[in-house]
Design goal:
2 domains
């Protein structure tokens, strides 16, 4: 990657929402190539986009869950489900976000996502 960007604000937001343990693990296992990507993700996704006005962070995390469910990203979705709970989202809101995604992308994906969400909620 070229250019400089400030990932500190985004990393702080990411840690608050996703959990210090997860973010520390992501950074501690990142090699030099992955480090730049993680800094970019923290700066853009968590520092800029996640802190924009217009949608609450609860709505943003539910959108992330729906998108991840739609593409079948079960493991990443589990992290976002736990983050949604941290942000105050209910089990019903999480389930409804997945069902809404399933109405567009397929009920099979929604069923798999609900199973992953149940696993994550059991671990939360």
């Amino acid at each position: 990657m070229t250019g400089e960007f400030d990932s500190a604000h985004g990393r702080a937001t990411r840690a608050r929402i996703m959990g210090d343990e997860l973010v520390d693990a992501v950074y501690s296992t990142a090699d030099d190539m992955q480090q730049d990507v993680q800094d970019y993700v923290s700066a853009l996704c968590w520092g800029e986009i996640f802190n924009r006005d217009g949608l609450s962070q609860q709505v943003r995390i539910l959108i992330n869950i729906a998108a991840l469910a739609s593409i079948g990203e079960r493991d990443t979705m589990k992290h976002h489900v736990r983050a949604a709970v941290r942000l105050g989202c209910s089990r019903v809101e999480i389930r409804e976000a997945i069902i809404q995604a399933g109405s567009t992308t397929g009920i099979g994906r929604a069923a798999l996502a609900c199973r992953a969400a149940s696993e994550a909620l059991g671990e939360a």
